[in-house]
User: Fold these one by one.
Assistant:
Number 1:
Amino acid sequence: MRIVLFCNWYKCSDAKHQEEIDLALEKNLGLDVDRVVTVVQDKDFEELHERWDTHIEIVKHRHTFNDIFELAVKEPRETICCTANADVYWDKTIENISKLDLWGKFLCLTRHNNGVLNLQPQGSQDSWVWLSQCTPRTFSETLELGRYGVDGKLNFHLLSDGYALENPCNTVHVHHLHAEGKFDSPHRFPAYEYPLGFVAPPNRRGQNKAWIENVPGERGDRLPTVRTRQVVGADGKLSIESW
């Protein structure tokens, strides 16, 4: 199956973390995938264009999931769409995605720090995978990549819309280049608040679990069974349908 990787790149005020963001993009551009699209804010376009040979999509604000979804829904059917935070890179295990059943699902992958899976993986994801024809609808809430809690808030919206969430982080590896956590950008705040969604890696029986918490430790109501997605009609316009 065709794989398209949507990367995110920006200019960071911390020089060391900028090196990590640059290295992540370099590694992602070297992957054996069908296409890499790099999303960048308009003010950072010139430097990105001068330094790397990549297809560029420009936004006029901080990157959001809606920006990525609006690009993904235009890809041909059966395209595997992948995205991640700017300081995360994929390795050759990205090829394992094509072996997975993705219909009606959204993969929310926990990162590895220096080769070790992040602690409490059910509450932290940095990379996401879905099929182009299963692209989520546009959310009314602005979900900015990189803000604290955005992974949980995205999980909440996806679960509320009926997606099955899975976290095969031991099958598909993503690597974080901000593992020491010495730089904490003010742009990561304010954090998203509850309700949040959580996605655990498969247990020993291969079972996947995902849930919503309205407050910490308190599980929410039963999840819906009707899904909604956005589609492109013959006239090129987007619409929302249940499936």
Number 2:
Amino acid sequence: MPPLKPYPFFLKFLDTLLVPFMYVISGTFIELPQETHTWNLLKLPLSFRDGIDETKCVRLEGSYQGRLGRNFAGPLFHFPVLPGVGWRDYIVLEADTTGSWSIGWDAQGMSRGHLFQISRLSLTQPQVRVLKPPVGVEAVFFGFDVHGAQVPLKIVGEGRIGDGTYPRVRLL
């Protein structure tokens, strides 16, 4: 895994300021809101894919069929409160690790092209919620610990934003 630079304080502060807004646009206050923002992500070089062990990944075909389709339309996919627009369905992934780790994804077929990135937000719990991609997009989710070792992932659940099934599991 490429080294992740320490997450700057001013970005942590910005994330904290956005939390109330993220609760409002999620349409629910009973579960943690989505945390992913463009500044949280590190774009990875495609050559890095060669170092990922597919047996430790989770591959998922898209199922979102809302108005946005494979388009991001800016940040609108973060707005599940808007009927037919925001992405709502998620899976819960669990990493086989006891320490801090990061989640990444390789999504092919998006309107913006190939998204191959990793979150700079450190996860301290083994489970994380990630949004299901749109129809026509295949996503491969992978994880790496703080030492750069790939951690095996598996799907342990699924749900819909607002259903309260996994209220304390972070959504990235």
Number 3:
Amino acid sequence: MTDLERALETDLVLSERQVWRHYGATLEDCERNGYAVRSVLVAPTVHRKATRPVQFVSLEPQTLEDYELRHLAAVAEVRHVLRADPRNWRVVQHAASTSPDAIWRHGLETWAIEFDAGAYSRATLLEKARSFRARYDDHIWAVASVSRAITVARYTTVQPVNIVAYL
């Protein structure tokens, strides 16, 4: 199994930019290897109205909504920023509102991973943060904008991780 295949198995989707930056593969390489490629129009956060075409790569054709592809790519970028081994990372899809986006086995600890695209209300943000503190050894809250990082830092004890180059 190649590193890219292991990543796609773990992360479910990656953007074209991620595939190139982290694995040195082009879309042509991906198509030649039988991976599914889907082009969608997405904005990097919920509040940004300007969209642009982004190619997403997966092992199988995806029927997910555009925003779900963006979200999964963002969670994958968090894994790359943390240098987390894919074997210690599990994406959590379509779970309860207090569930994290991913779970990372970090040494002997289990960490909750959350990507916030800017849509959570203050109440939801606080509820998720409380839930993560109660159920996990630690948690990481990733954001895609400086303004969202300020909001998260204002209402929680978490220092957010700002990721911007995932699409």
